[in-house]
Design goal:
The structure holds two protein chains of two kinds.
Chain A: E1 5-18, E2 21-34, E3 38-42, H1 49-56, E4 64-69, E5 72-73, H2 79-89, E6 90-93, H3 105-114, H4 120-133, H5 149-161, E7 167-171, H6 179-196, E8 199-204, H7 207-210, E9 215-220, E10 223-229
Parallel strand pairs in A: 3-8, 3-9, 6-7, 7-8
Antiparallel strand pairs in A: 1-2, 1-4, 4-5, 9-10
Helix pairs in contact in A: 3-4, 3-5, 4-5, 5-6
Chain B: H1 2-11, H2 13-53, E1 56-60, H3 61-65, H4 79-89, E2 94-108, E3 114-125, H5 134-137, H6 140-143, E4 144-147, E5 155-159, H7 160-165, E6 173-179, E7 185-196, H8 201-204, E8 207-211, H9 212-218, E9 227-231, H10 239-252, E10 262-266, H11 273-309, H12 311-319, H13 324-360, E11 362-363, E12 378-379, H14 392-406, H15 418-422
Parallel strand pairs in B: 3-8, 5-7
Antiparallel strand pairs in B: 1-9, 1-10, 2-3, 2-6, 2-9, 4-7, 5-8, 6-7, 11-12
The chains are: A alpha/beta, B alpha+beta.
Chain lengths: 237, 424
Amino acid sequence: MDNELIVKLENVTKRFPAGKTEFTALSNINLTFGKGEFAGLVGPSGSGKTTLLNIIGSLDTPTEGKAIVLGKTINSLSHKEAAALRNYGIGFIFQTYNLLPVYSVYDNVEFALLLQTMGSTQRKKAVMEALDWVGLADRASSKPSTLSGGECQRVAIARAMVKRPQLVLADEPSANLDSNNSHNIVQTMKRLNKELNTTFIFSTHDQKVMQYLERVIYLKDGKVERDETGGNNHAGI
Amino acid sequence: MKKFLLKGIFNDKGRSLLPIIVVATGTMVTVLLYSWITGIMGESIEMSSNMNTGDLKVMTRLYAEDYEQLPNDLAILNADALIAELKEMEPSVEWVKRIRFGALADFPDSLGETRGQGPVAGWAIDMLTTGTKEPHRFNLEGSVIQGSLPKSPGQCLLSEDLAKKFSIGPGDSFTLFGTTMEGGFSFRNFTVSGTVRFGAAGLDRGAVIIDISDAQSAFGMESAAGEILGYLPDTWYDDDVALSIKDKFNQKYSGDTDGFAPVMMTLKEQSGMADMVEYTNYISGLMVFIFVAAMSIVLWNGGLLGGLRRYTEFGVRLALGEDKGHIYKTLLYEALMIGTIGSILGTIIGVLIVLYLNVHGVNLSGMMKNSTLLLPSIFRPAITSTIYYIGFIPGIFSMILGNGIAGLGIYKRETARLFNELEV
């Protein structure tokens, strides 16, 4: 892992209005993620995992504190700047894949690049390379409806990786997959993490995922309970 | 990105099928209605021009003050000299003499006693001069039901309905009672050479058509004419050209205070024709507006439903780094493409129907029985260059408006909820 900082969270607090009061989803979070980390946010439902991913992914801003992602201070970004940060720097992998059903596998992966200024030849090369990473180059022209759940998630990984982002955020990526597929998916991401030196941050409570994580951050009631580095010893959550 | 959006339109029937059907239907109906209204109005204007108003009409000032009453006692006295002057001034315009009159027709029995009488509306036109275009202007050859066109003075044409009513046919004679130019009583016998049906209820009830020389002789109007009509060389009436000729002519006589000095009027200035021309334009504009509004509401709803159906897609696109403004722009671009496709389809279908109806016509004579207007009984939609593009106005505009309003919802989407929304 390099020393370069990808994410720096300083006293990040997030509150949401709840009727006449406020609900504190995150409280004074201080975390940093370096380049090439393969880390997970772990905790029960309501512990603040998704809220933290939202802030790191520039989808939301902290109520207090400061979040710096890829050198940009999330607090001060406009909608357009936040979109540009996601477009060029951050890949997203969702629990339910969220592929666009009317487009082919190739189109789904290519879409991430259409938002960037890239020539068609270069784009095609990048898409086929990304599909090759996940072993689906031969299914490029297939529609998502003809793929299995595991294959769909691999397409989603290709879509997240095709623009070679520095940071990938994956929210419960194995939740809808069986045991074999879960392992395959996480192994694929781990391989890409090593080959491309991309930082992966997961939100998960899946044991199968956790055993691959090099760092696990335990969240409870919006606070960091534990931050363990070492990997492969994160059972018992 | 354009290719990507086009793929979406063609692959996703839910995104494109309903809007294309709505747009194509609206476009088709717009094309049909526009050409229908233009056709009816155009044919009515053309018919009025040929039979009644001309593209230009010259009368005496006093006649013009009350021209709808056909006051032949105020007719132009030296019509041939005035025609020569008009020809010199505007050689490209065809100038013809006309006498319109109301009279009583007396139909005799075999003993020469009155068998029946009825009022007739009379047209005196040049039917006997070699090369005259007046019979063609009235479509006399095509309108003959029995007999033939007059070949010599003293012969006339009667409307078929009138002839039937009084059991009279080609070869029979009758007497026409009228008034002379001096206000005296006049009568003249005519022989029916043929009967005609124009397909215009107002004419077919009781028209008699005689040669202008017979009318001049019968009504004491030698060398006179009630009206001189001018026909522009173009097929369709051109108000700008007509106005410039009128202004030029009237300017020439502006200093003449004589009540019998000639004055010129354009088609648009006569018999409510201006209203008809304006009405045509108004109806066309109103129709386009109504279709834009109605289709926009349908497509707005379609856009809202589409927005709900594509909620996940927009969420993914936001998460992948597309900004809201760009998504909104792509929605408008999709609307433009769908609107264009629907408009092309609707225009093709509409034009094909117009072509069919233009050839075959629609016979509405049954509905026109009691009409006093100079309207044709067989209506045909008009084929003009406008029908090839008028449908695109409501087609594209309504699609963009409908989707533009529906798509505003994208700006209300909170990115902070994307993970939750996308994982349901």
